[in-house]
Amino acid sequence: MATTYRKPGVYLEEANLRGPGEIGTAQAIALFVGVASRGSSIAPQLVTSWPEYDAAFGGFTQMADPALDVSYLPYAVYNYFQNGGRNAYIMRAIGSSGVAAFANVKDAVDATAFTVNAKSEGVWGNDLAVGIAIQEAGGTSTVYTLTVYKIAEGAAHEVERFQNLSVSGTVPGTKRVDYAINDEVYGSKYISVSDLDATKIPVEVDNSSINSLLNLEDGSDGDLPSSTSGDLGDAAEAALASVEGPVILNIVGYRPTDTSSTTYVSETFDPNRVTRGDVFVINDNFPPRDPASSSDAYADTILDNTSSIGSLSGNSYVAAYVPWIVAPDPAVNGGTITVPPGGAIAGVFARTDATNGVFQSPAGLNANMTNVLNVDARFNDVKLGSLNAKNINVVRPIPGTGLCIMGGRTRKSYGVDRYINARRTLIYIEQSLKASTQFALFQNNDEALWSQLTATADRILRPVWNSGGLRGASAREAFFVTCDASINTPDVIASGEVRMEVGVALEYPAEFIVIRVSQFDSGNTTTTVVA
Q1: What confidence category does residue 294 fall into, taking pLDDT thresholds of 50, 70 and 90?
Q2: Residue 356 belongs to a domain with what CATH number?
Q3: CA–CA distances in Å: residue 388 to residues 20, 228, 252, 366
Q4: Which DSSP symbol is given to 114?
Q5: For position 2, what pLDDT does the model report?
Q6: Considering just the CA atoms, what is the radius of gyration of the chain in Å?
Q7: Residue 48 sits in the same domain as residue 197
């Protein structure tokens, strides 16, 4: 019976956790892996806008490596945000020989008090410098301000300042210098501090001129990531170990300076490499069209190489896309550039998720691309049919709409999960159920718990059906949940398990619209099929 409150005041009540009241625990987030001029190569970094990516990974600035002509990673991220993307993790892939720039902060007798390191490997760190000002002298209790500068065009530009630092951290009102600089949330975006000796008293580093600052040195980009050595795939696997929840993964390649052997270095990633079932891969590692080759010849090349380029045939966690797209080049005023389509496609995925849910196929007239001028190849109807039959999704212009994704298939060739929306609906349901049934751990395994689990599953599945994500005129036709004594037998209970069976009727997208037009004249009928 509900309690009646009469005296104004604060009252405490206890209630058992019975599962979620709504779904939404499994919205996917994009993860891009590729070559950048700087940024973390240890763990993926979350960015929520293009300016954040620009600050963390160097924007369109390319590496100094003469073997690199262009990295397509910044273009993928830029087009992702242009097409509706909101949040993305970025993982910088590097070769094995990159070195981070560093500088040693000295004391009065030229001994090292601590070392300042660039946040990641690369020559970009050689353009960093630090200044150290004494706020209050007092031996090992000296209080400092450390300022980080970026050197550009012969001038030092302040990018960060950290005040009230000490080498011991025991001075009231101060924080130990390495703790402050290395803090994951409030620390530096450019440098880290290591090898601190709290017995050494750092001397002041004058910041009155660019020549008096302490410059970081000896940073190098090292080798480019190799597809033959699996550097790109290894970086993706390492990133996935740090990112929780469903992921849309796009490994973005680069173009080497020497194009005699290849025009594009990329890698197909097999989701089976990770022990999780919530990774969906947007695969655009087909090479670009040779300018001397026709669109038809390019289509034949793709069809002839589906077993080796972007293959993973039979895998419903991967979708492949062609051709490359032509987009404005923000790095060149008025210029254009031909890039892989994966970044823009990931943005369309995110936009579709936000407006219609993962149950809607990211294809069709609503899956039109923005900030895209053209496609690098246009296929005739015969080639389009052949590519679709091979489960290769095509981006093509639609009169009056623009460039649209006109394919919604995974690399699997049979079953309802050969469609992207069906596979992602399953991922959504599975991850929502997993996250929403944690309350059942260590509860008494009886009818009361089974009833709670059934109600939890129903609260997740019913909104999916209401949103059009499941087939059926009624909820009974759309899904079922079984969690009772018929499957939770005494032996199952004794083993510490509770079992629940869930069945769902997934939606098929309408790939082919067939219109039969009949002509009726004096009792004679002529029928024409319009596809």
Answers
A1: very high
A2: 3.40.50.11780
A3: 40, 29, 23, 19
A4: E
A5: 52
A6: 29
A7: no
